[in-house]
Amino acid sequence: LALALNIEPIYDQNLIFSNYHDWDKADAKKIPYIEAIIAKKIMNGNGDGYFYPDKNLTREQAAQLIFNSENEIFDKTGHKKNIGTIENIKTQKLENNNKETIIDIRDTNGDLQQILIQSSKTGTLNEITGSKLDNSENVIVYKNGQIGFINTLTIGDKIKYINNVDNKLNFINVLSNKLTTEYIVAQINSVDTINKKINTTN
User: In whole angstroms, what is the distance from residue 36 CA to residue 16 CA?
Assistant: First the structure.
């Protein structure tokens, strides 16, 4: 995995991997790569002090491994992960029975992003506030355990959306919807950065 993701091996005398009870069962040539994978928090053993370097992965462990590699995979493939809340959805008809949908998203930095979906007889175009894209397919949306399309999104949905270097939107995962989102209005009195606490008055 480290080689596939082009992760630099770690050659160090103070290895994290040597803290595992069974570190000596690993192939010595692979230890620097295992160390790099641990440092990236892609793998961490089984939580019982053992890494089991001589055992095969289960399908569940392999799936978790891919999930943990998400940021590395995105970085190497030029993809970007964003998180935000849908504030508005506007659909309008264009000429020749074409349709345009604009989705306003407030990201975690407080900035407003827009997703533009243009549907036509020849296909669907989608973009995130950038140059126009050609011949892209409808966006896949994962919501409430179901696979769907852009028409399943609603105002208030908190989403994770992934786009490539061309700003083409590849995937949307709805993390929660307005039924599970609670907004609290309060005045901030003080911020404790050390203990990560905010004192407020409702």
Answer: 10
Please name the residue that has the structure tokens 């896949």. Answer: 140
Measure CA of the first residue to CA of the last residue in the chain; give whole Å: 49
- The backbone region for 38, taken as left when phi is positive above 0, alpha when psi lies in -120 to 50, beta otherwise, is alpha
Inter-residue contact 158 to 177 (CB < 8 Å): yes
Per the prediction, the chain carries an average pLDDT of 83
Region of 148 on the Ramachandran plot (φ > 0 left; ψ -120 to 50 alpha; else beta):
beta
| C-alpha span between 41 and 198 (Å, rounded) | 29
pLDDT tens figures, 154-175 = 999 999 988 887 778 888 999 9
Do 88 and 156 meet the contact criterion of CB atoms below 8 Å apart?
no
Q: Alpha helix (H) ranges present in the chain? A: 31-39, 59-68, 70-77
Name the pTM for this structure: 0.61
* DSSP letter assigned to residue 77: H
Neighbours of 125 (CB within 10 A): 20
Asked whether the beta carbons of 116 and 110 are under 8 A apart, the reply is no
